[in-house]
Structures
1.
Amino acid sequence: MENPKPKKDLTLDPENWDQMRELGHQMIDDLFDYWQSIRDQKIWKPIPAEVKDFLDQPIPETGQDPNEVYEDFKKYIFPYNKGNVHPRFFAWIQGTGTPLGTLADLLASGMNPNTTIGEHAAMYVDRQVVNWCKQLMNFPSEASGILVSGGSMANITALTVARNSFGEEKIRQRGLKAASAQLVLYCSVETHSCIQKAAEIIGLGTDAVRKIGVNDRFEMKVNELETQIQSDLSQGLLPFCVVGTSGTVNTGAIDPMEELLAISRKYGLWFHVDGAYGALAKLDPNYSERLKAIEAADSLAFDLHKWLYVPYEVGCTLIRDAKKHREAFAITPNYLLQESRGLSGGLDSINNYGFELSRGFKALKIWMSLKEHGREKYAKMIAQNNRQAEYLADLVNQHPDLELTAPVSMSITCFRMKRADWDEDQLRRLNREILLRLQEEGIASPSSTILKGKYTLRVANVNQRTRMKDMDLLVSEVVRIGHSIHTI
Ligand SMILES: *Cc1c(COP(=O)(O)O)cnc(C)c1O
């Protein structure tokens, strides 16, 4: 019997492969033009209302030619980029990305392996990259790790292991009610907000987060930490974890790692390091000693989309005790059974080490980038950013109308324009206006923060495109704009 001839099977592959191939080449050309001319472009421009309207239209019911779709992208999206690919982007802490990293993401997306389980090359690349991360951080080879979407996920992953590893209470099985009293976590007032969010999500609650005060350099006060631990113990609470930050998001401050480690050991607490921004500063010889104790931490979270400059998104959690790591997450339902052979053979499933099941092939951009440049080049790049931040601080110190608002640590420089006879409120408005004009004129993008009541321009540099001369320009433009403002 003959099968009835199908009318036409549907597919999402292109009707015209040659056209799509040509479009792909065009996209790559456009990206390369963009990167190569980025220095001459405005760092940011406001989004016109017409564009916002276009990006508010309802779902298309019928399709469009891919070339037209790409034209829409070029008209409505591409020109209004955030700017963190630009050499003078210094807002928040955001990496630049690299051409090969981008191409790696294209390849990863084209191969499209769900990198969580099974016998295929991506699993081995992922494992190798996690091993390279351990080597970057000088973690023992028996430690475990997982690549996640970023620092926030990396931190909550580590804190979940810390919580589940607490005592003999079987918290994973029985929940927090298994603990005889409230578990308490310690960090500083300068700790990133994701630590508090993580504590809330893993069931500790905001009240269980002790935010210890900081010294003049914005580093956690160790004496206060110890006093707080003792006071909590005396009230029958259960201190379980100290979070030290290597590179705070505000000022790049480094908590006293050795002391935090010693206190954690003394009281039997889990020592976690949030190195989302600054753990990689270990590669700069000027910082390696101060960050040495990271190597002894029970867990470490750090971002690769910040100071390894790879495109978004990817962060890493490392856990010293691989067994505890696996015990916090491993679960094997019937549909995820592993085999000793075939497609379901191979390495331990990655979802035994974190919450996410489906995972992209984000390891590839790190793998290709580390092979392209090698560890030594990254060490020099990170050191270069740190020297640029110090150079900017020198320029600020040399200028009579500018002042630093925090000591420079790592690659963050905080400063502001000052004016004799102007009060704090006027200085806040002056510096805010300088910041907004810098951004709106497309010159440079610092961000702002408030340090000890002082409104501050904040220049955070994890930018692989920045040159020393960008710091000269930044300072001269701040001064130019500032001097053009007489009343506010
Ligand atoms: C950026 C940052 C985070 C959050 O990381 P994401 O990658 O943005 O999720 C946490 N802690 C510190 C210190 C950071 O700098």
Note: The chain has two domains: 17-44+82-97+375-488, 113-360.
2.
Amino acid sequence: MSSNISLAERDRQAVWHPFTPQIESHNPIAFVRGSGACLYDEAENTYIDAIASWWVNLHGHTHPHIVSAIMKQVQTLEHAIFSGFTHEPAIRLAEMLLSKLAFTNKVFYSDDGSTAVEVALKMAFQYWHNLGEPRYKLIAFENAYHGDTFGGMSVGARNVFSRAFEQVLFDVITIPAPTRGNEATSLHKLTEILSREKIAALIVEPLVQGAAGMVMYEPQALDALFDLARKHEVILIADEVMTGFGRTGTWFASDQLEIKPDIVCLSKGITGGFLPLGATLCNTRVYEAYLTSDRYKTFFHGHSYTANPTACAAAVASFELLEQVETQQAIKRITAYQQKQTELLSKHPCVADARCCGTIAAFELRSRQETNYLHPLADEMLAFFTAEKIILRPLGNIVYVLPPYCISDTQLDQVYDAIKRFLELHQA
Ligand SMILES: *Cc1c(COP(=O)(O)O)cnc(C)c1O
């Protein structure tokens, strides 16, 4: 390969990027290294990673503790088959996860958020199959996002992401998320559905619907739905792929619930943003449906890289960092910072809604057009913030800040200065 051609140019020749229109071939920025809350491009420009590299990074890029855990693991046991065999990193990580999600008692590994959700859905369907009283209906929230595989798309919103596949997705019943003012409607709709049909499972993004635009609701509102659904034996699935590992201010969003889910899906932050890994945790109720001598009732699911030891070692190291007092303090500091900015920006004439939950803050810009992923403001904001050397990737007219926990107040100030400058421009 000729070295005088830029990475961006070579990329354009060879690579197809996710969620990216192919005809408008903007040259993507090529990062060459990362450190702390920053990423550096080919020309040595520094960017603040204000969205934690798509919600995965917790402790900063190339954090030495995770780097050294990975180095040690690849030199010892890089990967091994996990069906019928095991290894310490997977066991250690499972013990750690179960210690924090004490209402669960088994961990099933997969590759990413989408597969963690697929596992949860299959686990729930087969639970009813194994019991000999099959249930085939699922309930999900409107505007949900649970990944890009077919199961994940089926329980997700029917929108631009899934339009081409609508005919081949399975039917799912939806209810509104219990956002402020919608709690009663949501509960009412659930009551009505449960009175007429047997439901296999209810899947939700607890407290924050990420891809929908960081849509937030109160734990009490979810408790009411979970309480009712559990009375109808519905399996409760919390998709914590985005909300896990401190994002909402607590270790898990489920920590803020009185009624605990039966199944929890984890990924994204699990390895601190170093390597792909998914985990689906379940409680004894679900697990016991598989504790049988009938081999036909086995959970026949697994991926080649299930419980990859290197990814598990990264996750163990990330977990250790998350447990440190300094990290917990950082989460509190960022939470307070986000709250302050939310209060401030809620008064801005261009902001239709400002909201925050833990380390996440989101700002919905006033617009005559409906909120939509393809909203023209998204491209405008993306170009502006990129030129400002801040990585923010708005969801339609909603800009959100979801930083790694190592970000400093000074760096956050820079991020918010850029947001405020965009708002001024937008207003003018
Ligand atoms: C990102 C996300 C997924 C999908 O995870 P991938 O790792 O991208 O497959 C599923 N559920 C939620 C809530 C997510 O935010």
Note: The chain has two domains: 7-62+325-427, 66-322.
3.
Amino acid sequence: MAFSSKTHTSFAFSILFLFYLCTSTFAATDTISRIQPLSGNTTAISKDGNFELGFFSPGNNGNFYVGIWFRTISIRTVIWVANRDAPVSSASSPELKISEDGNLVLSNSLGASKWSSNSTRYLSSSTIAILHDNGNLILRDQDNSHNVFWQSFDHPTDTVLSGQWFGMNKITGEYQNRVSWKDQEDPSPGPFSFHADQITLSQYVSLWNRSKVYWRSGNWTGKAFTSIPGMPVKSEYRYDLINNTSELKFRWTTMDVSKITRIILSINGQLQRHTWSHDSEQWIQEWSLPAAMCDVYSVCGPFGVCKTGFRPVSSRRWDHGAWSQGCERETNILCADSNKPTDRKQDDAFLKITSIKISRNPILVKVQSMEECRSICLNNCTCTAYALINYCNVWNGELRDLKELSNGNTDGFDVYVRLAATDPLIQDHEKPARHARRIMLLVVPSSVFMVLCAIAVIYQIFQRMTSTQKASTSDVSLIVYDYSILRHCTNNFSHKLGQGSFGSVFRGLLPGSKPIAVKKLQGMRQGEKQFQTEVRALGRIHHTNLVHLVGFCLRGAERLLVYDFMVNGSLDSHLFGDMNILDWNTRFQVILGVAKGLNYLHDECLECIIHCDIKPENVLLDADFSPKVADFGLAKLMDRNYSRALTTMRGTIGYLAPEWIGGLPITPKADVYSYGMMLFEIISGRRNTELMENGSASYFPVWAAMKISKGGICEILDHRLHDANFQELERACKVACSCIQDNEAHRPTMQQIVQILQGNQDVDLAPVPLFLQGLVEGEYSSSSIHNITAE
Ligand SMILES: *[C@@H]1O[C@H](CO)[C@@H](O)[C@H](O)[C@H]1NC(C)=O
Ligand SMILES: *[C@@H]1O[C@H](CO)[C@@H](O)[C@H](O)[C@H]1NC(C)=O
Ligand SMILES: *[C@@H]1O[C@H](CO)[C@@H](O)[C@H](O)[C@H]1NC(C)=O
Ligand SMILES: *[C@@H]1O[C@H](CO)[C@@H](O)[C@H](O)[C@H]1NC(C)=O
Ligand SMILES: *[C@@H]1O[C@H](CO)[C@@H](O)[C@H](O)[C@H]1NC(C)=O
Ligand SMILES: *[C@@H]1O[C@H](CO)[C@@H](O)[C@H](O)[C@H]1NC(C)=O
Ligand SMILES: *[C@@H]1O[C@H](CO)[C@@H](O)[C@H](O)[C@H]1NC(C)=O
């Protein structure tokens, strides 16, 4: 390619010039030299054609970058970018060239340098840059290939390839750093980076904001990094690590040279290995670390659930899957408005976001109620959100790593996020209520009789809504349904899910394919009473372990309640039936979930709610087998100023606490008793009371309690289960025994039960209760047990 100095004739010059044009534009070259820069559509191609170097514009938005990409595959995949944070505005005039001092330089159309290889090593006047077939761009002496001044492999962007060393120089402290792209169209440095841990020198780490480590490779065992699963067994790759006094570096090499593969730090902070599939013409992801995207710190940025009250900071980025910039408020909170007098905290409201996995590091405050928790947050402008999970969890400043869980996942909680009360969203949330008001007015003239009751109910709901409107703008969102809509949704009440003394339950599908269960209450008086209780009890509360009342419908004397549909039906069908028995793990989750739901009812709502009818039939299971306590028709709402309530006996035999049978007033401990009874059934997979052929009843809990007191815990376990976590089983058994104590004072509270089940609190083994022993010994005959009927 060099000009011969002897050619002086214009003819010869023209020929050579043409030759030069041809080689630079059409014939592939792998070299950039002083006389052969790169610009416009020209590219350099490695000798065997594996890689290509040139200008590209990932967003087709006029921003051009110099990069290297795979040449033999159909999707342009860039493995290295030179000027990642200094794009040039067109590809035609800027040049990538060898500068006077021998560095590789990108200059824009005005000749200003936008990027330089910045090598300070001794550069010769005859420097060339060569693109190699392994994807490495090497700047070296033209005549001495060992005299390398700079190479792109030493300055990775987000990708490493087979054979590429990656590490650090222990003497100078210089280290290689892989930094994610901002998004798929923007190669500038994103928030995630990956490099050798310069402090311990023992592993590699992934960081957010160059500071927060969220993933570690684990130590090198000599063959593999301990936290990279499956690394040593893969024989398609060879791994080398050098760790001497001058450097630490690591590389992987594919054994099969035809395999096209790369490891990238993705825009969402995961290290991922992608291998090209020639058959399907696409990249196949082999693994990613951390495996779950949500384990990447701040992957969704501040306020990262961009759906309510918040919009993505950059919707373009968000749409391209780079979420780390997060979201911002659509309406500024008034608290933070420095132009206003300071005391405008009360003008903010909270929006409930359900089923959220809690983000990191809330401040925990011990509180008595939801209200107290809310007011702590409301009264501190730096507080952005709260949630009540045993303690009051308060977040200050930006909320990060909220994860919205799929419907029904029990790990989720309700988080209340601070918004301006004037935020359109808060206003929107009040709409169902206004809508309901309108419907109510339409109903009134049509049927005067029953509607008086209905008005009372609805009036109560609205009373609460208005009186606590600021306090719980989003707490109440019961929808009043039109009868014709429900009839349509349930296909004219054709798909019956179940039938009980209360009425029947039908399956339906709301517009938008939301599955629901519609309960039609039966019997004028009884139905009305259950309806009122249920709406009062469930209308204002929300908990992952309580069934969610979506709305209701009044039509003449008919009362309908609309719930979220629970795919897996009720617990009893999974315990006592022959099919689909639940494994121990699921059973324990059910045990814990129900306890949490009841704890919420007893201790965390405005009024204390005693469910009064805990039994497997009233525990529903969603798609993930997360339990939801259902059927509040018999519930007793108790003002917190009273500690016990006198109530007519209700509920179901076999689950009724002795004080109740004895006609004494009840407390939430009555639910604890029923819960304990249910525990025996969940553990053993058999009914507590089994009628013998001769008409007498065998009482399982007494036998079980005796077994447990003698250490025979495993004997009471459902014999169909092949294994169980012994510690969990032991805790569940101890809880069951203490729940069925005769004296309610000896029974634990639901809150204690949750603690015990979670292993945070110890409990002694309770004695076998006398009441039950009496039952067995015939003090109460079996027939008298069965004469106790539900109201
Ligand atoms: C580059 O190629 C495209 C199409 O192949 C052509 O439209 C464009 O004019 C070329 N640009 C330059 C600077 O040659
Ligand atoms: C090269 O050095 C200059 C001056 O020190 C600096 O501004 C520039 O960011 C460096 N470029 C690269 C690619 O490191
Ligand atoms: C490298 O050697 C240093 C010093 O011997 C040691 O502390 C470190 O753990 C080693 N790193 C790896 C990755 O083996
Ligand atoms: C990111 O790091 C910079 C510098 O270390 C720091 O100033 C900044 O506050 C950090 N950003 C966040 C959101 O933590
Ligand atoms: C990894 O190595 C470091 C330093 O050699 C040591 O302090 C640390 O305990 C090791 N970590 C594990 C998980 O073995
Ligand atoms: C460390 O290993 C590298 C690569 O094998 C080698 O070039 C270098 O000389 C070694 N340094 C020391 C101090 O042994
Ligand atoms: C608000 O909360 C922050 C963080 O917990 C705390 O430092 C500050 O003192 C609180 N301000 C008030 C007025 O309570």
Note: The first helix runs from residue 10 to 25.
4.
Amino acid sequence: MNSESTRDTESLLKEANKSILFTTNRPNLVMEKGKGMYLWDTNGKKYLDFIGGWAVTSLGHCPEVILTALVQQSAKLINASPAFYNVPMIEFAKLLTDKSCFDKVFFASTGAEANEGAIKIARKYGAKFLNGAYEIITAIDSFHGRTLATMSATGKQKWESLFEPKVQGFKHVPQNDLIAIQKAVSANTCAIMLEPVQGEGGVFELEKNYIRSLRELCNEKNILLVFDEVQTGIGRTGKLFAYEHYGIEPDIMTLAKGIGGGYPLAALLTKEKFDIFEAGDQGGTYSSQPLGMAVGKAVVNEIIDKNLSKNAEKQGEYIRHQLVSIASKFKLTNIRGKGLLIAFDLPVEKGSKVVSECQKRGLLINSPRPAYIRLMPPLIVTFPEVDEMIAILSDVLTEVLSE
Ligand SMILES: *Cc1c(COP(=O)(O)O)cnc(C)c1O
């Protein structure tokens, strides 16, 4: 037992079963605190966290800069209402536009909400300039969120018949297939929306030539190229934004997850010429709320100041190198990813077993598909922590794969 914890895990779990609406299967443990790369549950058990709050805790758990930003801003102003500008809102928008190819920012609280905004700009653009074109092309196996429109945008087969009727106007094409997407574009198309690296789909990257061709296609057809960088943005892939890898500029980029370091925060960035909303088209009670703005600014500044994108690139390379070194022993294949968004394939569909055995030994990892393992640690991860992860994973693979 953890001497610091005063909580009785059994009674907490009993209460959770009673009062939490079921949406997902969770293990029988309750998380209580975090610091850096580690989480602790109410039994005092410590976990090395390679899920990172789902690619969210970019600075690790409970970093000083977030604590400070929250304390200082909450003493000054927590909410001014979305009807007024506030100071951190303006400063944070300046920071994001200074550091990216974009001119304008809309702030929200979740990735799905930022993507809804992107879909709305694309449809508005289609209505105004493309004779009412409204169709948006997305990729098979993509993930764009859980609101009705973003579920419709998502190219997940399991969702195809869920919550009918769908929001109309989304077409799904296979990723990296230029001919398929050229064929899919019609007079009804207003945008193409893609993740530069599919996260939930299992870490599959767009090819550089494909992206460049899409940029040309969008220019030629006068339609928008939208990058959903909710998972890839803010240092995750080794650059501040993933689009920087490809030598192109999207028309819209959405950010969430890592941008708040754990605080619910999202942003939509676009160019001056797509600043086309009229008053009331888009908004939200919590859009640009000062507390989130102060946290976001602190998180992004810290990532830039500490050059954590570079660390993501370096540690990502080291992780892939270490995975390669155990690959033949465990028949691991398709070791892939960019920066600290990494996945590989198991020889058998035992992903959830590997995850639960790792958890028992104090390591948190993710299995987005039965044979895939995904790693998305905080950007602050260091070599010894990678070694610790590889050691636990190797033990677990030895056990699980010999069964
Ligand atoms: C997580 C995710 C979303 C949804 O973000 P929420 O904050 O959960 O709404 C959208 N797009 C991508 C690529 C994501 O990884």
Note: The pocket of pyridoxal-5'-phosphate is lined by residues 110-112, 115, 143-145, 195, 199-200, 228, 230-231, 256-257 (CB under 6 Å).
